[in-house]
């Protein structure tokens, strides 16, 4: 490893007799001294000047358990957020292509603020294209700091935002968001898998994002929404660029078909993320209500019962190219599978999973 230029060389200090003794020490010795310092002192050292930051940063990162990424992938925890702002100012910094942040019950507003500051500090047009927030361990409810971080990521130029978590609560009492502001965002792929995004505090962010982003792909699961709330949520949405949609099986199929009729969705997936009651089986041969043509749909995937329920309300006029069947314990005993296979002539390709 090449020796870092000395402080004397870089700073051109006054004659040696009048300078601070530390400037006369070899950089290797300063680095050894840094290994003996506690974390708070190392942080202060990284803030003194550029050269001391380059010397002290690796030791600071080691105490935090932060590994500088060797590729375009960056994984963060709480300590990583603290190290992030120092790494951002080192010569080794590169903008990651993918950032994964695991939120825990020990994550504080300070950690969220540090991550938000990182996104705001990125120079010029440099952005992190893909951001993944892992919310399995927290937070229990959204906070203002959490929402400010989400808004910062949304407006940073990020193309893909994936938030994975659990259905923490009951979600909303109502799910209407008239008057939600338009925001500037370039998001094209969005996955929200947590009821954190469907609370009274966070619903404005969710609706504003959906109504403003040029979304091509959208996945909504673990929302905590009831059938009535799903219907209200989908009723006024207009996503002009949407081509791929994934929803959990709690979404009422009739409301979903009405939503699909206003869009050019090509891929539809029913996602079983938690145990839930299957909808009533609806045979396409016994329709009792007007059907809606879904002429843009080319790929359909889900359990046999949900596919049959979709075909009760919708007609796919020979455009379906892929049918993915997710088999469960009841698929054969309830005769759902045979009913679905009886209509497979509309598929030019077929697969069962």
Percentage of residues in strands = 15-25%
Return the average pLDDT rounded to an integer: 82
Q: Which geometry do the CA atoms define? A: elongated
Query: Helices and strands: which structural class?
Result: alpha/beta
Characterise this structure.
With 353 residues, the protein is α/β, with parallel strands linked by helices. The protein has 13 helices and 13 strands. The protein has an eleven-stranded parallel beta sheet with strand order 1-2-3-4-5-6-7-8-10-12-13. Strands 9-11 form a two-stranded parallel sheet. Helix 2 runs parallel beside helix 4 and helix 4 (50-64) runs antiparallel to helix 5.
Task: Kindly list the characteristics that best describe this protein.
single chain; 353 residues; alpha/beta; eleven-stranded parallel sheet; two-stranded parallel ribbon; 15% strand; elongated; disordered N terminus; disordered C terminus
């Amino acid at each position: 490893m090449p020796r870092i230029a000395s402080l004397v060389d870089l700073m051109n200090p006054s004659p040696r007799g009048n300078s601070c003794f530390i400037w006369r020490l070899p950089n290797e010795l300063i680095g050894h001294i840094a290994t003996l310092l506690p974390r708070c002192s190392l942080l202060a050292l990284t803030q003194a000047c550029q050269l001391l930051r380059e010397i002290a940063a690796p030791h600071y990162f080691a105490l935090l358990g932060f590994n500088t990424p060797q590729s375009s992938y960056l994984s963060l925890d709480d300590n990583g957020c603290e190290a992030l702002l120092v790494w951002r100012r080192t010569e080794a910094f590169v903008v990651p292509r993918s950032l994964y942040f695991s939120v825990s019950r020990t994550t504080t507003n300070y950690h969220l603020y540090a991550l938000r500051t990182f996104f705001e500090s990125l120079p010029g047009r440099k952005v992190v294209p893909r951001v993944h927030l892992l919310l399995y361990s927290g937070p229990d409810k959204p906070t203002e700091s959490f929402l400010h971080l989400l808004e910062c990521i949304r407006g940073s130029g990020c193309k893909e935002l994936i938030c994975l978590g659990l259905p923490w609560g009951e979600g909303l009492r109502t799910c209407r968001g008239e008057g939600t502001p338009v925001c500037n965002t370039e998001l094209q792929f969005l996955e929200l898998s947590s009821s954190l995004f469907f609370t009274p505090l966070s619903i404005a962010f969710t609706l504003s994002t959906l109504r403003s982003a040029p979304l091509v792909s959208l996945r909504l699961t673990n929302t905590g929404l009831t059938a009535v709330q799903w219907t209200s949520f989908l009723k006024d949405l207009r996503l002009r660029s949407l081509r791929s949609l994934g929803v959990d099986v709690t979404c009422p199929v009739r409301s979903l078909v009405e939503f699909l009729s206003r869009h050019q969705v090509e891929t539809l997936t029913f996602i079983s993320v938690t145990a839930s009651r299957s909808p009533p089986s609806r045979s396409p041969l016994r329709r009792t209500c007007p059907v809606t043509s879904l002429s843009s749909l080319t790929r359909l995937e889900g359990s046999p019962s949900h596919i049959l329920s979709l075909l009760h309300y919708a007609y796919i006029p020979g455009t379906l190219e892929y049918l993915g069947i997710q088999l469960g314990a009841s698929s054969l005993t309830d005769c759902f599978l045979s009913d679905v296979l009886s209509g497979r002539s509309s598929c030019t390709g077929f697969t069962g999973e």
